[in-house]
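Good morning,

Both structures are done.
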Amino acid sequence: MIISSAPVMEGDELITEDNKRYVVVKVTGNTAYARYMETVTIESK
């Protein structure tokens, strides 16, 4: 799955469109590996 063409580093976080939060744990060449952390609740004002 391709999420971003922007450079990423270990420790970067992302939230997918289904509100799942991931943290990048490893970057090898052009491939980043992320660990699922939690499903977040997005509140709107």
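Second structure follows.
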Amino acid sequence: MIDFIGLIFICIGFAFDVFGCLGLVRLPDVYNRLQAATKCVTLGTCSILFGTFLVVGVTSAGIKALLCMVFLILTSPVAAHAVARGAHRSGVKLWAGSVIDKYAEDREGEV
């Protein structure tokens, strides 16, 4: 039964990864693409790793999967924020349909 639940987590994670990849291809600018990559791929990969933990159990591979999940949850949002801030500071324009630019508001306060 636990193997079946693990396979369900792996399938759900695979679906999230596919949707994240579609977002990378279909979304209009770097900021929206970062959103897709960070949210979907992080959740998808963590789900795959958790499913792997459920399938293999408390072994060295299972513990490594849990540690990779923690590392991914801690580093992925920070890296996406750094890339988005660097892109904004280097002058990458937002999509024409973007409604708000919080980085520009923060920058105005710096001057």
